[in-house]
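Teaching assistant's notes for section 4

Start the section by putting this record on the projector. Ask students to predict, before seeing the second block, whether Histidine ammonia-lyase will look compact or extended. Collect guesses on the board.
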Amino acid sequence: MVILTGSALTLQDVKQVVFKNEEVRLATDVVERIRMNRETVEQMLAEKKTMYGINTGFGKFSDVIIEDHDLDELQLNLIHSHACGVGEPFSEHISRAMLLLRANALVQGYSGVRPELVKQFIDYLNAGIHPVIPQQGSLGASGDLAPLSHLALALLGEGRVVYKGNQMDTEQALDQCGLTPITLKAKEGLALINGTQAMTAVGVVAYLEMEKLLHQSELIAAMTLEGLQGIIDAFDPDLHHVRGHQEQIEVAKRILQVLQDSKLTTKQGELRVQDAYSLRCIPQVLGASWQTLYYAKEKLETEINAVTDNPLIFSEENKVISGGNFHGQPIAFAMDFLKLGIAELANISERRIERLVNPQLNDLPAFLSPNPGLESGAMIMQYSAASLVSENKTLAHPASVDSIPSSANQEDHVSMGTIAARHALQMLENTRRVIAIELICAMQAVEYRGIYKMASMTHAYYQQARTIVPSIRKDRVFSTDIEQLTKWLKDEEESDIQKQINKGGIMYEQS
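Reveal the predicted structure now:
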């Protein structure tokens, strides 16, 4: 069970709730904190104090005063008018993460909402009701207005949700669960949609997927080293310690551990003096990709426990402050940085694929073909990998350097953080396919060398992957192989091999 306090949520907690459907509860002391905060709002309304978005219009309409009898309608109108998301919906996992993260922000008691509203989030999470939320339409400042408005619609019993694997009207799902929609009061609509929970939810999922993919890529790169009889000296710890980057040091240690009993690696001077950079510099490049991941992790861990709406209510000081905590710049930068690490993970993998298939660069059968000339083998798999890598380079362009003014220039600088996070996730999908292609080629290469000479860890991984994709005996539709192996990599739980590597005591302390 995950207990929400507003300040102690971890990425592991999010993983358990989002992917393992862990039950969620509120900490015992937070309800009173939320109630006190709400009472402050009610008191200030009674005193006729002017408060942005509570008794005024929104954005450029902030100078328009709203009559008391229209305050509830103001919040409903806000949700309806701002539900302008377009495009394909986010995955159920991301929708679920958005529910969790928005609830955790409201729990802190600075948003002026009633406890009943926060409870609605918890009920939806525990019942498995996931709002259908279009991916596109957020500027990443004033919060993720459009995506969060679609989330809010579901809390009101409107819009569409996914429940038990089926998309349906929200009312139908609530009937099946025995839940009722909530009616918004003053401030609550604004509190629901002013926040960074869309970009942060996507960012958390991207972080979790990249962490797994980095571990997988190290193991696959080790198999490629065997297929190409790579020089193991380049992973000597002395070499990496003198540079000092911790992540680089640990990638080299893990590669050495994986290949410690391999009969396919070589020493410098046995076959050649030096390997190409895509083999020799695996620790330097993947280590740097780990660094982008840890930077993103640091920012995400802060943001999942952040209060990001506007205005904020400080009950003890009896004040309401309008500010800009909804601005997504920290997450936008983090996601754009993460994209660089993802891009290079794919980039160096594709170069290893080229070395595995190019007969001018190795002594393997041309394009790993079982019958070169008559059959093309892995020739066009490298094309696909190159295409995905090139697409990643386009997606890696930083979204955070762009800004388009909105709301009649009142909101004149925005982060585009949700675009950055979405592109990071898209790049991970591309990169996973590139890594899958490398694994197909590496397995074919080690078969040619002799799988009995493989390291015990890579051999075990080879055997697992071979249950998904058989050996290439003749040309076939390789798209099927790539997609099946990609799905296996995405769905794979931490393997016994990975646990064995982790037990070696060489995991970076942040992970």
